[in-house]
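Blinded run. Sample ID left blank on purpose so nobody reads anything into the name before looking at the predicted structure. Input follows.
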Amino acid sequence: MSTSSTSVKGLRVIRRPGITLDHLHQSKEWADLEVHLGSKVYQIHRNIVCTAIPYFKTMMSTNLIETQSNVITINYPHIDCDAFEWLLNWSYSISQQISLSNAKSLLVASDYFQVNSVFQFCCDYLDGVIAVDNVLDIKQWIGTFNVGNLRDKVNKFIAQNFNSIVLTPSFVNQTLEQVTEIITDNNLNVSNEIDVFEAIIRWTKYKHTERNLCTPKLLIHLRWCQLSYDQIINQISKHEIVTSNEDCRQIIIDVLSCLTFESSYNQHSSTWKQPRCQLIKSDTESTDLIVACLASPSTFELSFLDHSTNTFISWLKVNQPLIRENHKAAILGSSLLLIARDCISLNLINGRVYPCPKELRIFDWPDLASGNDCVYVSGGLNGKPSDIVYKISRFDDESFDIIQLPRLKNSRAGHRLIMCDNSLYVIGGRDESNILDSVERFDSEQNKWQIVTPMVTARSAHGVAVHGDRIFVAGGYDGSSFLTDVEEYNPKLDKWIPMTPLIVKGKIVSLIAHQEKLFTFIRSPAKLVQIYDFISKTWSVTEADSLTDDSLIAVTQIPSNFCQKTDEK
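Blinded prediction complete.
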């Protein structure tokens, strides 16, 4: 290396060529620390590696024997020599690359040597390359490390792409414990629980001889209540892997007993009846559909609105009669609650009907509101208007968790219940002698109802909806005639503002806020749907040809993924 010089403004500047850290690392010149890892010995520079790698800084700052001898032996068997050399090169400011081939070993090494920045680089890299063919490997690599949001993202990706991932070679090479963890995820994105059964069979067949005894340990985690009897009897119970295993056959017997007889108990019953959350909602942005409930003398059916043709398309038919009166509808878990003078719970996945809690069957025409993973039920008639409010959470189709909230300040029937900005409101209705304009809001912190500003117009049997952070009421009955009045409530200002009135008056079935519009459905004439456009601030009237005056009993909103597989219902 020769000395160079330059002239700057009459001065002579002399430079000696610098020695790079890379040169020091390769030449071992002035190395003063020896590291033994496996069969290899590394000559390194204490000042450099102690600056970059906290493990060595800690060790060299103590009175350990290594400090005196300048020799460190690493006995941790999971440290890969290539990964250690990667860290050394990085310490000497040599550019390094992270790839799928070294990410696992780098995670282990950077965690052991406490190099948090490299550990985070690995996590960020893996976060960006998650794919169907590698996600199970990544899940295994991150193990029990503290990887922040990466583990949640990996688990979410597996749940969302379950049907594709079970077809990869990595899936059939998972252990029993790993497969169990995957199929017990409540968020599996499966259109039908039979997909989970088929994944179990595929895993078992890969090494049938040694895995046959594992099959029943996986079958107990199926959500059997989400399967039809036809699927259980004709697809699962007759499968050769099930018929050849006595424990599998016994599970089928227990399942059928549990699903047929409500009193039958099994230690796995609560799991069998628990729905998959992905059958309820999707992590991708989904559109709620406007769904009408139509009743005939012996059946009722659900139909969803096709906006392009203003026609309700039949989706799910149920062989059970309902009274032809306005029902209140709300989603609870995977079920639709329908309440008027009769009260049922319809499982939207398997199409089965279950009775509602007995506490709700004593009231005629209460109102419902969905919110915070539960349903609120209030008021109604039990000889006279009621002031009772229930909060209902679901455990499974046959059992509910019911909490009674503090009583309303006013007993009410024909009122409306709505959630807005995590607050529960009770609006209008009638008591024993008057139509009400009063509004109550539940204060969850003080656990009591508060009176807020009343509506401009007293009304009962009206429609109510939430759009953004505002509440809208439309129509209703004032004691002598049906109304066209529409109002908007601003909770922050505690103020009601009159809006453009409805075009057609009638008995309101429901008011729905959907895609920057308000949809008003009336019972007669039922074919007419009034639509309010928030941009033009005007109402229009259109016909829904499939509706008839005496058939429409309820309209609500249901996540669109419930309606994706109509033929399977």
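Unblinding after everyone has recorded impressions. The longest helix spans residues 246-260.
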